[in-house]
């Protein structure tokens, strides 16, 4: 899949002015983009933050006012967790205004490698572990995305070599283009149906982590035991699976050792601080 065509970015509407919304507004304004923020329940602290940034903050606009705001910008950036039922999505579609996530914006401005991790459970743990392993290997990396540091903020650090991105379904659902070097999908279970229109919509958001992987160099990593994850594999990219003993996974447990796909014994299970099933698979 080719990256979407992107027009000039002169003005943007940021929906929600929490941690990610503020990071997005900061990234946009620092690049000369005019920003208007919409927040339905801003606190005094949020109002003060918007004022200090020179960003117009519109509180709980009527449908007519929201339509006007959307039609007057080049791009809408919803904050993670905005329900798919929110009227802004219909207004943007009707006005022909693109919707992008913070991942899209980061892709506009940065091309350094990304390891992306999604899944209903375990995202934060695995993101933390991968970041720690990279740092221990001498690779300057940072855990970002669905953390205290949005990806669009993390890219401002020129010293980072690899971004380890916790990719929630909230972010993936509004992303037009996301091409990590490695994309991991840990597992799937019903969740977040207050934000997603349906279970199918939630699944599609998760599956999109593999949609734009480079056919030649991208690597997908999948649970060997989750049927939903396996059913969404991208046949155009290399996929490695992980799972416990007897799962026929590429990376597995064999003779009491965690083994890499090439058979290399990584560490003995009894040397791990914890060895519950979810710890080793």
Q: Please, could you describe this protein's structure?
A:
By secondary structure, the protein is α/β, with parallel strands linked by helices. It folds into three domains: 11-99, Rossmann fold (3-Layer(aba) Sandwich), CATH 3.40.50.720; 109-242, UDP-N-acetylmuramoyl-L-alanine:D-glutamate ligase; 244-281, no CATH class. The protein has eleven helices and 14 strands. Helix 3 (63-71) crosses helix 4.
List the helices and strands and how they pair.
Elements: E1 11-15, H1 19-30, E2 34-39, H2 44-53, E3 56-59, H3 63-71, E4 75-78, H4 87-95, E5 98-99, H5 102-109, E6 114-118, H6 123-136, E7 141-145, H7 151-154, E8 162-166, H8 169-173, E9 182-185, H9 199-207, E10 219-223, H10 227-231, E11 238-242, E12 252-254, E13 257-259, E14 265-268, H11 277-280
Parallel strand pairs: 1-2, 1-4, 2-3, 4-5, 6-8, 6-9, 7-8, 9-10, 10-11
Antiparallel strand pairs: 12-13, 13-14
Provide the domain count.
3
Distance between the termini: 31 Å
Order of strands in the sheet with most strands:
7-8-6-9-10-11
**Strand runs, count:** 14
Q: What is the CATH homologous superfamily assignment of the largest domain?
A: Mur-like, catalytic domain
Q: H/E element string?
A: EHEHEHEHEHEHEHEHEHEHEEEEH
The CATH architecture of the largest domain comes to 3-Layer(aba) Sandwich
């Amino acid at each position: 899949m080719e990256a979407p065509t992107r027009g000039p970015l002169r003005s943007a509407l940021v929906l929600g002015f929490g941690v990610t919304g503020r990071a997005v507004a900061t990234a946009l304004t620092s690049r000369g983009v005019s920003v208007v923020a919409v927040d339905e329940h801003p606190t005094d602290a949020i109002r003060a933050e918007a004022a200090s940034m020179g960003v117009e903050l519109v509180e709980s606009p009527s449908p007519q006012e929201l339509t006007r705001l959307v039609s007057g910008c080049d791009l809408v950036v919803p904050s993670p967790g905005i329900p798919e039922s929110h009227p802004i999505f219909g207004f943007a579609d009707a006005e022909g205004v693109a919707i992008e996530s913070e991942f899209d914006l980061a892709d506009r401005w940065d091309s350094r490698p990304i390891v992306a991790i999604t899944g209903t459970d375990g995202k934060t743990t695995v993101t933390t572990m991968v970041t720690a392993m990279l740092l221990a290997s001498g690779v300057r990396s940072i855990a970002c995305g669905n953390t205290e540091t949005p990806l669009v903020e993390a890219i401002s650090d020129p010293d980072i070599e690899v971004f380890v991105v916790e990719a929630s379904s909230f972010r993936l659902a509004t992303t037009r283009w996301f091409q990590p070097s490695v994309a991991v999908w840990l597992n799937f279970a019903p969740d977040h149906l207050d934000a997603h229109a349906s279970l199918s919509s939630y699944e599609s958001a998760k599956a999109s982590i593999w949609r734009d992987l480079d056919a030649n160099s991208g690597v997908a990593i999948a649970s060997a035991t989750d049927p939903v994850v396996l059913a969404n594999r991208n046949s155009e990219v290399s996929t490695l699976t992980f799972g416990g003993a007897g799962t026929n996974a590429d990376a597995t447990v064999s003779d009491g050792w965690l083994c890499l796909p090439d058979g290399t014994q990584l560490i003995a299970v009894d040397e791990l601080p914890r060895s519950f099933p979810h710890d080793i698979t």
